Amino acid sequence: MDDINEIHKRASENCGFPLISLYDLFTQYCNDNNVTVESLLYDEVHPNDAGYDVMFKLLLEALEV
User: What is the largest CA-CA distance in the chain?
Assistant: First the structure.
């Protein structure tokens, strides 16, 4: 996922549009809260219900809602 996240970042910079990297926010949340990323995933890629809850809260914070 790191490689895909970097592609998204470069594309947003090159095209001049803002990017909220939920990947970065999600991994930082896990590091800050001593939570494993795997505990918030249904499989090795997609979030489970708790993971979607975390992502939703992080997105709201990033949008300052």
Answer: 35
Q: Are 19 and 8 in contact (CB under 8 A)?
A: yes
Task: Please tell me whether residue 19 adopts helix, strand or coil conformation.
Answer: coil
Region of residue 21 (left: phi > 0; alpha: psi -120 to 50; beta: else) = beta
| pTM for this model (two decimals) | 0.83
**Percentage of the chain modeled with pLDDT above 70:** 100
The answer to whether 40 and 7 have CB atoms below 8 angstroms apart is: no
Contact by Cβ (8 Å): 40, 47: yes
Positive or negative: CA dihedral 45, 32, 61, 20: negative
